[in-house]
Amino acid sequence: MRRLLIIAIAALTVLPLASLAQSPEQCAPTERLGKYRFLRQVTLDLYGRPPTIEEYEQLHSGADVDEAKVDEMLASPEFFDRLAAYHRGFLWTALPSNNDLFRTFIEPDNVDGVEVWSDFDKQIDFRGAYEPCLNMQHTNFDGSGRPLPMQTGYMGGECAQTATGCDMDGWVQMSPYWNPGITIRVCAFDAQEFTTGVNMNDGALTDCSRRNDDPGCGCGPGLRYCAAEGPNGNVDEIRTALTEEPARIFEGIIKAGRPYTDAFSTSETYFNGALRHYYRYLQQNQDGELNDIADAPYTTDWELIQRPDYHSGILTTMGYLLRHTSQRARVNRLYTAFLCDPFVAPAGGLPSATDPCSQDPDLSERCGCTSCHTTIEPATTYFGRWEEGEFNYRAELDIYRENCATCEAGNCPDSCRRDYVTMDLETTPGSLGDEVGKLLTVAWRTPEEAAAIDEGPSGLFDEPGMQDRLASCAVQNFSEFLFSRELTTNEKGGWLPDQVNTFQSNGYDFIQMAKAIVMDPRYRRID
Amino acid sequence: MTPKWTIVGVLIGGLLVGCTGDLNGSEPRNPNDPNATPETKRIVRLSADQFFRSLEVTTGQTWSREDQYAPTLGKPDFDQATQESQDISVSFVKLAGDAAREVCGEAVDADLEMVSTDDRIILKHVDGLDPEDDSVLTNLRYLVLRFHGIHMTDDLDSRLDPWAAIMRTDLPADQGERESQARDRWKAVCVGLITHPDFLTY
Description:
The structure holds 2 protein chains of 2 kinds.
Chain A: H1 2-13, H2 15-22, E1 31-32, H3 35-47, H4 53-57, H5 67-74, H6 77-91, E2 105-111, E3 114-118, H7 123-127, E4 151-154, E5 166-168, E6 171-174, E7 184-187, E8 196-198, E9 205-207, E10 227-228, H8 235-255, E11 268-271, H9 273-282, E12 303-306, H10 318-323, H11 327-338, H12 370-382, H13 402-406, H14 414-419, H15 447-450, H16 466-483, H17 489-505, H18 510-519, H19 521-524, E13 525-526
Parallel strand pairs in A: 2-10, 3-7
Antiparallel strand pairs in A: 1-13, 2-3, 4-5, 6-7, 8-9, 11-12
Helix pairs in contact in A: 5-18, 6-8, 11-12, 16-17, 16-18, 17-18
Chain B: H1 3-20, H2 48-59, H3 66-69, H4 90-113, H5 135-148, H6 161-168, H7 175-194, H8 197-200
Helix pairs in contact in B: 4-7
């Protein structure tokens, strides 16, 4: 190995020479690339990888990287994968912790050297202490098939802290819904397949599909009510699918040749089998969106799904709404990433917080804030029915609540303080005017602005000029992605508007736009 | 200076020379002058994912530490880090070298296990391991196309000289000893190709 190191150093010593000898075009300003290096550049940009040797060798016959080759690449699944990653860079989709995403988990425990799955949170409900089941096959069931303890008064492990010991089950073997090809051991109490239990405290029937502490409820048929952590589980698979969903909307819209703007307005989305299962059985918000979606095999590939009409493309996916939890954050990301219009503080800085003009509770009027919030506050109204920090559409949300208007500062219910203008927000006497009791997203808005709450986020693009701004930003973003630099002032004044006009006259066809930039002479030159 | 830092230093030097050299006899452009921004594609280093995919495509091997070092190489998680970094840092140069040594070692070893050269990736055009064999130059031409996208039609092309030097400089007189060194020399060529600016940038 030392010999190799010496040879490597020798090799690296000649690299600058090799660099000079092999690729003068990399150092010379604005050189037009030859066809081999151009193929490498296009392939790295559109596929995210260099060409294979076979792809290079196809150029030996004299063919250049021509329009037909670019068309072929822009229709390739590799390009659409790359496009998904490209859009994720704008969406920033990242998800909160598992506890905020999933209703119930099972996870593997090592019991006497054997992997056995159980729900940690319900161990105390099932057995009386935080202990998994025993390492033995469970054989004790009542007439209806409910598991009875294999051993009572068990005093091992955490059960030693109890007065009378634990009621212990063993394990059963079963094939989980997320991978029917494998067999796992699941503690018998957790593996109960009943959809209804009987609450031991009050005798009421328990819906086992919901989070509960009823020992008569397990993970349901085929474990369907439980997500599974660990290397053989499905939590990571579902998290990945959730982050992919908005990018899949872009992919579907672009692949179908539909207007790029549809990605912000369509009620359609894309789910695979894992996502269907998640929304139907596993999502933390048990009364949440899409929990009545039809069942499908878990291994179902990505397919088009029709959501309720109030959805707005990528802007109302779980990935977007949970990553950008407040209404203002949702607006901020939209304007920054897709309208190329980031919110920045005024050049002169903000006035003092003690300045009288800093006391206005309406941020669109408060000095220092107004330059950004004149835009942000009306825009948040479009998101107003989507709960902050949740993936939940609230069709019945009242625009005004009397109890929120009349409650005293410091004594208002949480629901008021979260969503409504209450006296808690009063900065100076009388500063709230007639706004107290109104939903925050419509307070201080004109009646016309407040009506946007029922349009949903897609309504933003019905505003004058918004589609033009979206188009211009889409072209600018993709140009800067391909050119690996910001557009110059000169380009923004002439070249960009021309490209945007073509994009719009082509019906916002993203593929045609991408092709025009790849074929543009400036993309083939390097500095 | 330790060998490790020698490598890092030489690499940084190589990158700098590769990016600022004045090869046409004209004055170099001031990269800090915004008015001098050419309206062209700007050369950047590969992103973390592009680098990983490039290793796979060119060597047929996957770096075992991709997941571990992806954030260090600039890949965002969109939670703590939201912007992809494509800066050429000391960390990037160091890790690129680590990755190159691993995948090149495995690629050359795997090739030498194969009977048919058709199935090989690095040693595609060499039957034996004699560094003086004419097939060495043909194979180097093939590798420079495979790794850098630079096509040469002639084995005597001077751009092959630095690579040929790695194979043929200070060869032992003994034929057996020469051939036993050849394995390491091919690995060194592979490492040099990967850590070259023509591979790491586009």
